[in-house]
Design goal:
By secondary structure, this protein is of the alpha+beta class. Helix content is 29%, strand content 13%. It has helices spanning 3-9, 33-43, 54-63, 113-118; strands spanning 86-87, 93-97, 100-105, 110-111. The chain has a two-stranded antiparallel sheet with strand order 1-4. Strand 2 and strand 3 (100-105) form a beta hairpin.
Length: 119
């Protein structure tokens, strides 16, 4: 396949410009030192957070809030606009596409990154 053929078959990925206010103050959601440490360690496994300083990671983790989801409940449906970034504290999550299970994740793993980038 030539370079021009390759480009013709790919779609573009882009995002709109975002104006970030210099006055923005991230919310602070109280959590134990144990939970904070767990979340920071979990982010270490995610490429999106590689370039953040320790202070930025702490601010991000500080703004995270717990969301409990009962077993069997759909968290994100294929085709929906993403709403949150999730870190699994307990249990397992299955990922499926077109009704077929593609993979799963458990404690310390995360998903929903694209919601932070594109939605």
């Amino acid at each position: 396949m030539t370079m021009s053929d390759d480009r013709a078959t790919r779609g573009a990925i882009f995002a709109e410009s975002v104006l970030v206010s210099t006055n923005y103050v991230a919310p602070v959601v109280p959590k134990s030192n144990e939970v904070t440490s767990f979340l920071i360690n979990s982010l270490a496994n995610n490429f999106l957070f590689d370039q953040l300083t320790a202070s930025e990671k702490n601010e991000f983790v500080g703004s995270m809030k717990r969301k409990t989801v009962a077993a069997g409940v759909t968290i994100i449906r294929q085709g929906d606009i993403g709403d949150y970034f999730y870190v699994i504290e307990e249990g397992n999550v299955e990922f499926s596409a077109d009704g077929e299970t593609m993979s799963s994740a458990g404690r310390g793993e995360s998903f929903g990154e694209l919601a932070m980038i594109y939605d």
